[in-house]
Amino acid sequence: MALYLIAFNDEWTPELTLEELRERGTAARAVIAEARAAGVFVFSDGGLDASTVVCNVVPSDGSPVFTDGPFVESKEHLGGFAVVDVADDEEARYWAGRIAVAVGWPQEVHRFPHRLAMSTDT
């Protein structure tokens, strides 16, 4: 099994009414419920609010230096995500496709490094 991030950029979402957003949310929650029932769901969230950036942190001489606001100016912003634990790329694509159809906008699929490979590196 491997962990996959299924995510979308907030810029990819169309302008929707509140009712349309509610409908898409209901559809997405139904897919997440199916992923839970299939035993592949790990975690999801509706994303991050671009207006709530707490800070950024950079290393400086072995110490963290905190500043308010985002690190770089960018229109790209995480709009929402789900993490699934599935057997392979094909199954990750399946769940990403289900989510994309449910919400009506594109999704990206990223595989996290295999947990066993990571544990042998330490």
UniProtKB/TrEMBL annotation:
Residue ranges annotated for the YCII-related domain, each copy included: 17-99
Pfam family, one: YCII
Domain of life: Bacteria
Record-stated family: Belongs to the YciI family.
InterPro entries linked: Dimeric_a/b-barrel (IPR011008), YCII (IPR005545)
Name of the protein in its database record: YCII-related domain-containing protein
SUPFAM superfamilies referenced in this protein's UniProt entry, alphabetically: Dimeric alpha+beta barrel
